[in-house]
């Protein structure tokens, strides 16, 4: 049974409105207090109101819902774990994330299109996943007494994956886990890894009219960044080129003061599991260009291969990271979802309701295949 467009639109709209309640100042267009940039800015409202909406929605439909507390962040963060019947142990888990990146973009319906923050990444996936599970229940392909499928919607995916790390504390395991992210309706064969890079330079403050006694930390850092940009990063046939983005630069207090400190944060999308070799290449490139720059690597994760043994799907290798490596266990992993990553995190994030309808059928197929394969 195909879910109606009104159900999918209602779910997506409700998520967007919940995000607005999480961050009313942003929703009203008021300026937000300045914050120190991070590698991934914390999700708007931490998914708090979205989680409450989902809890109410699922409980009204007979699910047992556990709102799991998640440490960290700037508020009351909770994962939403839901299942039918009396046992929380199921064969299949369907999961995505309910946090988003700032800034807030209000929900808007433009004809058959849904616009707003998170419509693609990843409230559209959440809506399609719920609709798919409800549809399978209606056609009795998922047992209403439980045991077949559970839902997990986590916070913190956009900022350190604290939600999925906390989900490991549930102490559960599954035969298959179906992750929801924007894949343009294709089944992912794998995605690139991540290497975060922090760079810092220390100078000596002084008057800009007499720079000789001082040292300009920004100049030191810029030379290091130039070396970083020229580093020969490794590639692979399956994942392509390793890419680099310098996303944050900080330093200085005024244009007439030599800056005493400067820092930058970069993110490398790894196409190879040669993580240590890549670190060595980066350190050498930076230090050859500017010996005074300190280089650290706060986090690394090699490329992630993903199961794709389900017929009827085009496949794709993705350049972004997901929560897949953060969920422990011996289970098959599938990654699929509506929308394009090219509009995610942008000021024109949107998708068409028809894309959600296709995603519902995709999730139905993946869940059904997982249940038949066990």
UniProtKB/TrEMBL annotation:
Q: Which domain of life is it from?
A: Eukaryota
* Signal peptide from the UniProt entry: 1-20
**Sorted alphabetically, which CDD domains does this protein's record hold?**
M20_ArgE_DapE-like_fungal
Peptidase M20 dimerisation domain ranges (all copies):
190-287
Q: What Pfam families does the entry give?
A: M20_dimer (PF07687), Peptidase_M20 (PF01546)
InterPro entries for this protein: ArgE/DapE_CS, Bact_exopeptidase_dim_dom, Peptidase_M20, Peptidase_M20_dimer, Peptidase_M20A
What cofactor does this chain's UniProt record say it requires? Zn(2+)
Which key words are in the record?
A: Hydrolase, Metal-binding, Signal, Zinc
- Family named by the database record: Belongs to the peptidase M20A family.
What is this protein's name?
Peptidase M20 domain-containing protein
Annotated source species: Apiospora hydei
């Amino acid at each position: 049974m195909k879910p109606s467009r009104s159900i999918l639109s209602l779910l997506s709209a409700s998520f967007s409105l919940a995000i607005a309640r999480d961050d009313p100042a942003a929703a009203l267009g008021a300026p937000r207090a300045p914050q120190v940039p991070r590698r991934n800015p914390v999700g708007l409202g931490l998914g708090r109101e979205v989680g409450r909406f989902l809890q109410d929605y699922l409980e009204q439909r007979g699910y047992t819902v556990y709102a799991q507390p998640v440490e960290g962040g700037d508020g009351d963060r909770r994962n939403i774990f839901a299942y039918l019947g009396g046992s929380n142990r199921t064969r299949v888990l369907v999961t995505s994330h309910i946090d988003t990146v700032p800034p807030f973009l209000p929900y808007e319906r433009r004809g058959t299109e849904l616009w707003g923050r998170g419509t693609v990444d990843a409230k559209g996936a959440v809506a399609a996943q719920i609709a798919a599970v409800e549809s399978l229940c209606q056609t009795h392909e998922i047992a209403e007494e439980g045991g077949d499928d559970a839902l997990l919607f986590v916070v913190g995916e956009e900022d350190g994956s604290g939600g999925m790390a906390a989900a490991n504390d549930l102490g559960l395991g599954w035969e298959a886990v179906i992750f929801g992210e924007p894949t343009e309706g294709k089944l992912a064969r794998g995605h690139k890894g991540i290497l975060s890079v922090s760079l810092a330079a220390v100078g000596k403050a002084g008057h800009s009219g007499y720079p000789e006694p001082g040292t300009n930390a920004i100049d030191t850092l810029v030379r290091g960044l130039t070396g970083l940009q020229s580093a020969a990063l490794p590639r692979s046939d399956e994942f392509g080129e390793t890419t680099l983005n310098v996303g944050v630069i900080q330093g200085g207090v005024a244009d007439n003061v030599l800056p005493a400190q400067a820092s930058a944060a970069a993110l490398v999308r790894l196409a190879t599991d040669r993580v240590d070799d890549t670190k060595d290449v980066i350190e050498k490139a930076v230090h050859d260009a500017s010996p005074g720059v300190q280089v650290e690597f706060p986090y690394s994760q090699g490329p992630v291969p993903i199961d794709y043994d389900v017929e009827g799907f085009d496949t794709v290798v993705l350049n972004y990271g997901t929560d897949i490596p953060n969920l422990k266990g011996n289970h098959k992993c599938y990654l699929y979802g509506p929308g394009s990553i090219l509009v995610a995190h942008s000021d024109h994030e949107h998708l068409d309701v028809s894309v959600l309808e296709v995603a519902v059928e995709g999730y139905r197929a993946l869940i059904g295949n997982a249940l038949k394969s066990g």
